Every structure is written in structure tokens, then in C-alpha cells.
TrEMBL record:
<protein>
    <recommendedName>
        <fullName>Tektin</fullName>
    </recommendedName>
</protein>
<keyword id="KW-0966">Cell projection</keyword>
<dbReference type="Pfam" id="PF03148">
    <property type="entry name" value="Tektin"/>
</dbReference>
<dbReference type="GO" id="GO:0005634">
    <property type="term" value="C:nucleus"/>
</dbReference>
<dbReference type="GO" id="GO:0015630">
    <property type="term" value="C:microtubule cytoskeleton"/>
</dbReference>
<dbReference type="InterPro" id="IPR048256">
    <property type="entry name" value="Tektin-like"/>
</dbReference>
<comment type="similarity">
    <text>Belongs to the tektin family.</text>
</comment>
<dbReference type="GO" id="GO:0060294">
    <property type="term" value="P:cilium movement involved in cell motility"/>
</dbReference>
<feature type="compositionally biased region" description="Basic and acidic residues">
    <location>
        <begin position="105"/>
        <end position="117"/>
    </location>
</feature>
<dbReference type="GO" id="GO:0005930">
    <property type="term" value="C:axoneme"/>
</dbReference>
<keyword id="KW-0175">Coiled coil</keyword>
<keyword id="KW-0282">Flagellum</keyword>
<keyword id="KW-0963">Cytoplasm</keyword>
<dbReference type="GO" id="GO:0060271">
    <property type="term" value="P:cilium assembly"/>
</dbReference>
<dbReference type="GO" id="GO:0036126">
    <property type="term" value="C:sperm flagellum"/>
</dbReference>
<feature type="coiled-coil region">
    <location>
        <begin position="418"/>
        <end position="452"/>
    </location>
</feature>
<keyword id="KW-0969">Cilium</keyword>
Length: 484
């Protein structure tokens, strides 16, 4: 293929069939031949390629070949300028003229097609431009209407949020009072439980289920009962403060609407000349999460839910006020009963402690005498260690006598000496064990008495010093109802 023409009107020409045709000019009419064109075989020129000009070693004469083989001979004829006049002409002037005419017609047809395409394209561009402008204006109008809807629902959300914040503040204050009252009960409960815990440290007979313990248990039950009721109402208040969750839903909805308003406001003011616009491929395939009806219903449901929660919150606040007054009276009455029982029990424990101290003094004297006996027995056992070693060493040395000298002679009776000493040691050890057992029993008795005394002392300390000192104060009525 060959590119001909200027850069503005360049077209692609067909494959060349000859290197000797004159150039086609726009004045082709001056070459018109008025003679009729000779009938030619349309396919006669199709096979003539560059092989037409190739040389051949043997060139047959036309007279010796049939007519139909004449062209094949020409195809093998070597072309030289000297035999140019002997060759037949490849094209006629009429062929050349027709070729020009075909080119003109094709050019005119191409120009008409291009002109028609240009007109259709311009009309399409104008129609699409108008349609795009109308669509953009419609979209801007829809965004403006959407902004109005967002502003309306945002104002409704703001009003309901303010009411909800007020109610939440009131319920939170009552809940805080209930929490403080519940926290105030922890002190008396802890005192009662600590008294029970300390009194559980009493051992042996001192661990009795007396009136003090009964009243302490009852006090714990009363306080726990009050706490349980408080916790139930506190749980209800916390659950009711799920209206805080409703508030969060309102605030989140309002926040979403603020964001949507900001985005839609920016979109509403976007123009073709605005900054920040760009291509986002595939964004048109995004599926929205809601429809206009579900969008407005979502906000309306949030508002209705918030109003229902506010009504329940007000009713709950009245019930909590009644509860606080009831529980404070119950705990005060039981507190006074326990203190009276403690006073009586302290007096009984002090009398028992004095009797135990007398018995402990006698036991300590007997323990001292038994310990002296044990020391005497141990000294006697130590005194038998050296004789036993001497006797056993003599026997061991005499076993080394060789052959017949290893005789059971009189000195061999060292065996009886060893046995005698061992028997003596055994009897002393038995006496020592008996003395140690006796001492152990005495010590155990002493420990028991001391332990019992420590229990009595500990009981007096717990009841008189620990418990009564802790029970000197009790939360006042205003504190028990949640006021500081």
C-alpha cells in the first residue's frame, strides 16, 4: 500500500499494477479518447505481476505457440528498453479514463458519506447536549427537594432529642440517687458481714449460734432484700436508659442527616465548571440501601420510639422515690436490734475467759516438771552411746582374725554386752517416748486452754472492739434515700 496526497486529504491507493502509467491529474478529461474501446478480457491484466519482466533463457516465437499461450510467453520475456516497441500495450486510454472516473465517483461518494455523517453527528451532539442539560437540571431540582426533606426531619429530630436529653437527665439523676442509696447500703451490709465473718473465727464451744448471730443474719437478709429491690429498679432504670440508646439513634440519625445534607448541598452546587469533579467508573451500579418511604419511616419510627421511652421513664422515676423511703426505714430498725444483742454477749464472754486463765496456770507448772524428766532421760541415752560404740568396735575388729584364730572365746561374749546396752537404750527410749507423750498431752491441753482463751479474747475483741466500734455509726436517712 502507498500513501499519496497531502496530510489533510491523504487516502490509501490500491496496489500498483504498472510502473509506467502516467500520473493521474485532475485534468483527465484532456486525455479522453473518442475511439471506442476494444473488447478486452477483464481478467487479462490480473495475472500480470512483476514476473512479467523477468528474463527467460528460451523465448519462443509467437508463430510457434498457440494463441492462448501467447500471454504466457510475454510473462517470461525479459524487458529491456530496446524491445519496448515490440511489447503490446498493457492498458488502453479508455481504461485509463475509466479508472479516473471510478476514482472521482468513489471520492464524491466518500465525501457525501462524510458530509452526511457530519450532519447526523452534529444533530446527535445537539440533541444529547440538550438532553444532558435537562437531565442535569432535573437532578439539581431533585437534590434541592431532597435537601428540604432533610432539613424538615432534622428539625424534628432536634426537637425530640432535646426532650429526650431532658428526660434522660431527670432519670439519670434518680438513677444516681438510687445508686448512691444502694452504695450506702454496702457499708452496713459490709459491717454485718464482717461481724459474721469475724465471729466465724470463734472455735470450739465459743462458736455458738447466739442471738447476736441471729440478729446479724437477719440484718444481712434485710439489707440484701433492700438491695435486691434497689437493684431490680436500678436494672429497670438502666434498661429504661436504653432510651439513651434511643437518643443515640436520634443523634446518629441526625448526624447522618447532617452529613447527607452537607453532601447533597455540595452536589446541589456542583456545576460543569466546578473543581473536584472526576470520573468514577462503575459508580452507577451502586445499589442504594433505602427508598424515600422507608427513609422517612425510619426517622418517624425513631421519634415515636423516643416518645414512648420518655413516658415509661417518668413512671419509673415515681416508683423509685417510694422504694427509697421504704428501704431506709427497714434498715434502721434492724440496726438497733443488733446493737442490743451485742452488748449482752460481750458480758457472757468475759466471765468465761477468767475461768480458763486459772486452769492454764496449773497446766503450765506440770509441763515444766515433765520437760525436766525428758532432759534426764535424754542425758542417760547419750551416756550409753560411747559404751555401745566400744563394744561394737571390739567385735568388728576381732572379726578380722585370720583362719583358726577366729575363735568363739571368752572375749567373744562382747555380744551379750552389746545386747545388754541395746536393751537398756530401748527401755530408756520407751520411757522417753512416754514422757514425751505425756508432755505432748500437757502441751495439747495448754494449747487448747490457750486457744480457748485466745478465742474468748478474740471474741471479746471482735464483739467489743471490732464489731461495736464499726457499728457506732450508720448512714443517715437522707443518705439512705440517695441525697448526699
Amino acid at each position: 500500500m502507498e500513501l499519496i496526497g497531502s496530510t489533510l486529504t491523504a487516502t490509501y491507493a490500491r496496489p500498483k499494477t504498472s510502473h509506467f502509467l502516467p500520473a493521474i491529474s485532475t485534468m483527465a478529461s484532456s486525455y479522453r479518447n473518442t475511439q471506442p474501446a476494444l473488447a478486452m478480457n477483464p481478467s487479462a491484466n490480473l495475472w500480470r505481476t512483476n514476473s512479467y519482466f523477468k528474463s527467460s533463457s528460451t523465448v519462443p516465437t509467437p508463430s510457434s505457440l498457440p494463441r492462448e499461450n501467447l500471454d504466457l510467453v510475454r510473462a517470461k520475456t525479459m524487458f529491456y528498453p530496446s524491445n519496448r516497441t515490440a511489447l503490446t500495450t498493457r492498458y488502453t486510454p479508455d481504461d485509463w479514463y475509466k479508472s479516473n472516473q471510478n476514482n472521482y465517483r468513489e471520492s464524491e461518494s466518500s465525501r457525501k458519506s462524510a458530509e452526511r455523517l457530519r450532519r447526523d453527528t452534529m444533530r446527535l451532539m445537539q440533541d444529547r447536549e440538550q438532553m444532558t442539560r435537562r437531565t442535569q437540571e432535573s437532578t439539581s431540582k431533585n437534590i434541592g427537594e431532597r435537601l428540604n426533606d432533610i432539613v424538615f426531619w432534622r428539625s424534628e429530630l432536634t426537637h425530640e432529642t432535646d426532650n429526650m436529653v431532658t428526660e434522660i437527665a431527670a432519670l439519670t439523676e434518680v438513677k444516681r440517687r438510687l445508686e448512691r442509696a444502694l452504695a450506702e447500703t454496702e457499708g452496713p451490709l459490709q459491717v454485718s458481714q464482717e461481724c459474721l465473718y469475724h465471729r466465724e473465727k470463734r472455735m470450739s464451744i465459743d462458736l455458738v449460734h447466739d442471738d447476736v448471730e441471729k440478729d446479724l443474719i437477719k440484718e444481712v437478709e434485710v439489707i440484701k432484700s433492700c438491695q435486691e429491690r434497689m437493684r431490680r429498679y436500678l436494672d429497670r432504670a438502666i434498661a429504661q436508659l436504653s432510651n439513651r440508646a434511643a437518643q443515640h439513634e436520634l443523634e446518629r440519625d441526625m448526624s447522618d442527616k447532617v452529613t447527607a445534607q452537607r453532601i447533597d448541598d455540595r452536589c446541589h452546587h456542583l456545576r460543569n465548571t466546578s473543581d473536584g469533579i472526576g470520573y468514577y467508573r462503575g459508580i452507577e451500579r451502586l445499589d442504594p440501601l433505602s427508598l424515600p418511604d422507608s427513609w422517612s419511616k425510619f426517622t418517624d419510627d425513631n421519634i415515636l420510639h423516643s416518645q414512648s421511652e420518655r413516658t415509661s421513664s417518668h413512671k419509673l422515676r415515681d416508683e423509685i422515690e417510694i422504694l427509697l423511703n421504704t428501704t431506709s426505714n427497714e434498715m434502721w430498725n434492724q440496726f438497733n436490734n443488733v446493737n442490743v444483742a451485742f452488748t449482752n454477749r460481750v458480758s457472757e464472754t468475759a466471765d468465761a475467759k477468767n475461768s480458763l486463765q486459772t486452769h492454764l496456770a496449773k497446766t503450765l507448772q506440770e509441763i515444766f516438771q515433765t520437760e525436766m524428766l525428758i532432759e534426764s532421760l535424754k542425758k542417760a541415752l547419750r551416756d550409753k552411746e560411747c559404751p555401745l560404740k566400744v563394744a561394737q568396735t571390739r567385735l568388728e575388729e576381732r572379726t578380722r582374725r585370720p583362719n583358726i584364730e577366729l575363735c568363739r572365746d571368752n572375749p567373744h561374749h562382747l555380744v551379750s554386752e552389746v545386747r545388754e546396752i541395746e536393751d537398756t537404750i530401748h527401755k530408756l527410749q520407751e520411757r522417753l517416748m512416754e514422757a514425751e507423750n505425756t508432755l505432748q498431752n500437757l502441751v495439747k491441753t495448754k494449747v487448747t486452754l490457750e486457744h480457748d482463751l485466745s478465742i474468748k479474747a478474740n471474741s471479746l475483741f471482735l464483739d467489743q472492739e471490732k464489731c461495736m466500734s464499726m457499728r457506732k455509726c450508720f448512714p443517715s436517712m437522707p443518705r439512705l434515700v440517695g441525697y448526699t
